[in-house]
């Protein structure tokens, strides 16, 4: 009997042991051999096929099993010679594009964190190898860097790296693009491809989403009051700002900058005694009104903490709601719907979407998904956000909805019509870099600058550099306007007029960011009638492009001259200072020459 039990135990162990690893290698023209690896497939069958499409290669990954279950980890690996590929761009770049060794080159993306899109580029703005996947909801881990042995570029995409609800079938596509094209074109096309393949429809964009705005955050933080906000709005609207965002603080008397008091979303009567009346007064001043919410957070000091404490993904002092519960989704939708109706808001800043995640374990597994009508967390977030947009647009079709980096990309564009650069207060280079990165992956969804602030003792010319670093996005301001000198007011008014007059070119034209490895020292936008070029670094030779339309060259270098390369002698030359006043200008010749342009000003060339 003991022998029989031993045999039976061994037999059960063998049957429970995972099937041997499944691998398949595809010979690509772009990246050499690409190997699909599933080390513990269990009952899953994993396959991959290769095809070509418009000069690019597409790998289709397919997985299926007879009985629904947790899908196994699957990865794609490649190793190819480093040939004229010096830098790696990815959507999460907060610094220059940089090629790292493979032991320090790990990245991650999900519905609410960056994008699974990576580009190896050279030092002359050319694409060398761009890779993306249409998996825009689930987490995808990546490794893209340099293998020291032999100077080889290595790449890896890994799927199902976090707990996943049981399924029996899965497919994804991987794009590989080695065309010798301008690097930003390769990235933008890959982003558009991801959107199409995933079947996402971006949220409609009202014109108000393109208008400059004022945010309360950097100067007020949580210490907002109706009276102070309205006073700032009266100043802001005179300068040309059209929308207000009231950030954190309106819902609590606490000033500790935490989220322990979030979750009830009731107005603090101390700060704003009558929200509907306050909103109306701001609108009568001439500004639209948007309000901040930290979507998933329920603080321990809120009444809703007890109500939802068994429906959190994680958290102690601040709980994170689990949107797989239908009552959680209904609660959140109702909060925004009620605010829109009762206060006549114009929009919402929906923050911390990236906090919808569990820790090391999914709490639903131990509870056998009890009470949850959707098992997949990414899908539940997707359903929640779509429902929020649907219900808000049913009330006000032009409702404004802002999201903040790093929740960006194809999925997020379904839910919002304003994508803002991640927080970088006072960091003009960081703002420029974030805006440029977002422009490449956001299609027609307006990209907003992080809110501008600078010290009130700054010179007008230096203050202008913050504005000029943000001008290829919709500009947001968060200065205490009552405290800035009149010269700063003039600078703001001038550049708000300029960006409004040239809005079509700056925000909707062909956008060309140069040298991401150097944090974009030159940015350019072009429409059928004009080209606008801005230089941010001294001692550059700035090519003004073909003599086929009017050209504006903006001086954001901090110096009073620039070196321009002109293809032909311009027929008309006008020069303007930081306030927009015209100053004397000299005639120019063909070729490379140093030109006097005041710091914070620009030159206008007519052909």
Structural summary, described in words:
This protein has 607 residues and is α/β, with parallel strands linked by helices. The protein folds into three domains: 18-198, no CATH class; 209-502, Aldolase class I (TIM Barrel, Alpha-Beta Barrel), CATH 3.20.20; 510-606, no CATH class. It contains 13 helices and 33 strands. The strands form six sheets. The chain has an eight-stranded parallel beta sheet. A seven-stranded mixed beta sheet has the order 24-25-26-28-33-30-31. Strands 1-2-5-11-10-7 form a six-stranded antiparallel beta sheet, with no helix packed on it. The longest helix has 19 residues, at 377-395. The radius of gyration is 27 Å and the shape is flat.
Q: What features would you highlight for this structure?
A:
13 helices, TIM Barrel, 33 strands, disordered N terminus, alpha/beta, 3 domains, 607 residues
The fraction of residues assigned to DSSP E strands is 25-35%
**How many structural domains does the protein architecture include?**
3
CATH topology tier name of the largest domain: TIM Barrel
**Average predicted local confidence, pLDDT:** 95
- In CATH, the homologous superfamily of the largest domain goes by the name Aldolase class I
C-alpha Rg (nearest Å) = 27 Å
What class, by secondary structure content? Answer: alpha/beta
Distance between the termini: 99 Å
Tell me roughly what share of residues is in helical segments.
10-25%
Work out the helix count: 13
- Structure summary, number of beta strands: 33
What CATH architecture of the largest domain would you give?
Alpha-Beta Barrel
For the biggest sheet, the summary is: 8 strands, parallel
């Amino acid at each position: 009997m003991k022998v029989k039990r031993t045999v039976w135990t061994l037999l059960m162990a063998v049957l429970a042991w995972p099937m041997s690893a499944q691998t398949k290698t595809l010979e690509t023209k772009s990246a050499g051999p690409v190997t699909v690896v599933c080390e513990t497939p269990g009952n899953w069958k994993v396959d991959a096929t290769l095809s070509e499409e418009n000069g690019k290669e597409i790998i289709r990954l397919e997985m299926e099993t007879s009985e629904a279950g947790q899908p196994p980890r699957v990865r794609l690996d490649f190793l190819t010679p480093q040939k004229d590929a010096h830098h790696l761009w990815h959507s999460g770049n907060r610094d220059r594009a940089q090629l790292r060794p493979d032991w320090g080159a790990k990245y991650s993306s999900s519905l609410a964190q960056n994008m699974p899109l990576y580009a190896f580029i050279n030092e002359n703005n050319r694409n060398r190898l761009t890779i993306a996947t249409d998996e825009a909801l689930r987490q995808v881990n990546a490794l893209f860097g340099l293998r020291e042995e032999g100077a080889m570029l290595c790449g890896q995409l890994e799927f199902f790296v976090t707990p996943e609800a049981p399924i029996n079938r899965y497919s994804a596509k991987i794009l590989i693009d080695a065309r010798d094209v301008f690097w930003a074109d390769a990235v933008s096309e890959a982003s558009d491809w991801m959107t199409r393949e995933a079947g996402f429809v971006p949220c409609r964009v009202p014109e108000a989403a393109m208008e400059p705005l004022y945010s309360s955050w950097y100067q007020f933080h949580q210490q907002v009051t109706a009276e102070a906000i309205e006073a700032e709005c009266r100043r802001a609207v005179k300068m040309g700002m059209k929308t207000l965002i009231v950030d954190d603080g309106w819902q609590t008397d606490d000033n500790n900058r935490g989220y322990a008091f979030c979750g009830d979303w009731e107005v603090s009567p101390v700060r704003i005694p009558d929200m509907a009346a306050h909103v109306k007064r701001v609108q009568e001043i001439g500004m639209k009104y948007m309000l901040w919410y930290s979507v998933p957070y329920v603080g321990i000091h809120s009444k809703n903490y007890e109500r939802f404490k068994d429906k959190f993904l994680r958290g102690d002092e601040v709980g994170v709601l689990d949107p797989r519960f239908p009552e959680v989704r209904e609660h959140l939708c109702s909060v925004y719907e009620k605010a829109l109706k009762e206060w006549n808001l114009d929009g919402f800043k929906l923050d911390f979407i990236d906090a919808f995640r569990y820790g090391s374990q999914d709490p639903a597994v131990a509870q056998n998904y009890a009470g949850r009508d959707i098992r997949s967390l990414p899908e539940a977030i997707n359903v929640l956000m779509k429902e929020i947009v649907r219900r808000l647009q049913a009330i006000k079709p032009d409702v404004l909805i802002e999201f903040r980096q790093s929740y960006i990309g194809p999925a997020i564009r379904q839910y919002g019509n304003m994508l803002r650069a991640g927080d970088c207060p006072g960091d003009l280079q960081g703002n420029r870099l974030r805006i440029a990165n977002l422009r490449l992956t956001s299609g027609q969804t307006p990209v907003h600058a992080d809110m501008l602030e600078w010290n009130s003792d700054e010179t007008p010319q230096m203050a202008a550099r913050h504005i000029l670093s943000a001008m290829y996005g919709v500009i947001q301001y968060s200065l205490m306007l009552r405290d800035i000198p009149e010269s700063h007011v003039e600078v703001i008014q001038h550049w708000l007029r300029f960006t409004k007059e040239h809005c079509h070119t700056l925000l909707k034209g062909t956008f060309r960011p140069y040298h991401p490895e150097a944090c974009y020292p030159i940015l350019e936008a072009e429409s059928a009638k004009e080209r606008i070029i801005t230089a941010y670094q001294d001692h550059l030779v700035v090519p003004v492009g073909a003599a086929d339309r009017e050209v504006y060259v903006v001086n954001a270098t901090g110096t009073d001259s620039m070196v321009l390369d002109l293809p032909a002698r311009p027929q008309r030359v006008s020069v303007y200072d930081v306030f927009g006043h015209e100053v004397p200008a000299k005639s120019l010749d063909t070729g490379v020459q140093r030109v006097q342009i005041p710091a914070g000003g620009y030159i206008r060339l007519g052909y």
